[in-house]
Every structure is written in C-alpha cells, then in structure tokens.
Specification:
- The structure is a single chain.
- By secondary structure, this protein is an all-alpha fold.
- It contains 7 helices and no strands.
- The chain is globular.
- The two termini are 20 Å apart.
Length: 216
Amino acid sequence: MQKKPLMFCGFTTMMGIFGAFLRWLQNMQGFETDSGLPITSSPWHLVVLIYLIGFAVWLFLDVRRMKGAVRPSKYPEAFACDSKIWRGGAVVFSLLMAVSAVITLFDVVNADPEDRSVFSLILGLFGIICAICYMSFINGTRGKNSKNGGFAGIVIVVFYCYHLIATYKTFASEPVTWHFAIQILSVAACLLAFYYISGFAYGSPRVLPTIYFCHL
C-alpha cells in the first residue's frame, strides 16, 4: 500500500476511535443513571453531533479531491492486496462478526419465551452466513473472475438491509433517540459501503462513493 492511502486509512481509523471515545463519554455523562433519560444540560450530546457532522463533511471534501487520481475500477484488482495486515484484518473481522452472531443466538435461546425475538434469531443466523460470505468476498480478489465475490457481496448487502430493519424494529418504542441513533447510522453506512463495493464485482464501480462510505 502506498504511503498516502495508508496515512489516509490510519487517520480515519484514529478519528473513528476518537469518535467511539466521545460516544462513551456521552453514555457516561449525558444520561441519567436510573432512568436512562438524557441530561439536557450535558454538552456531550452537542459535542458528539458536531463531531459526526464535521467528520462526514471533512471526509466528503477530502474524498472529492481524489477525483482526478488514477484508480483501479475492476474487481478483483481494486481490492487485491498481498499485505498480511489486510488478510489478517479480514480474518479478524469475520471472526468478530461470527462471534457476535453466536452471542446473539445464545441470548435469544436463553431468554424467556415471551422475550424471544424472531428478528434477533434470524439476525444471528444471518450473521454467521455473512461472516462466511465476507471471507469469500475477500478471497475472491485472488481469482481472475470478476464475479468471484458477486454473490457474497449481495448476501452482505441483504444482511445489512435486514440488520437495519431489525434495529429499527427493536428500538421502535424507545423514546430516547440517542440510544439507537448511532447504531442506525453505523448500519446504514455499512450497508452503503458494501453496496458500492459489490458494484465492482458486477462491472458498475463507483470509486469515490465506495471510498467515502468505507471510511465513514
């Protein structure tokens, strides 16, 4: 990986970590301990909101400056990488997704019958399938067939569509928007990222939106 793209990826990663830290502070300082209701006088709600909007705008402007750069527009060339960090990261991401899915299934199975959610059960099963498809999508960059990762990409996109619906369904009666807003935005960003990534496998690449939503 070239120095400039590596620095760009590293910077957006650090911004994501700092954003998670701000979100943690908001959860610790911005809500009442007993009721979970937001504290209106807390500045952390505004800080998190400004940070989210500011980073989204900065990233948009920075990605737009890449418009004239030469970039591969075909799968698997656009995602092929021999870096051990790249391969290791793919394995770790898949394992984390699989473990999260297993935990979701475990919670559903051990919940009281009246508290069991069909949405969560399907989400857990779907998550395991998605973890396998993610590795298949990454391994598809080793082949010459541009459709190697096509099916896996579709499965991942459908998974995030369902994840978005399940998340909204779960928090439909939640009166505090901040309790689920970040999760909704995160799932939506992942959905759009994999949607644009999958476009490479089907000959419809959109490079700049792909970069934007992958780093968002």
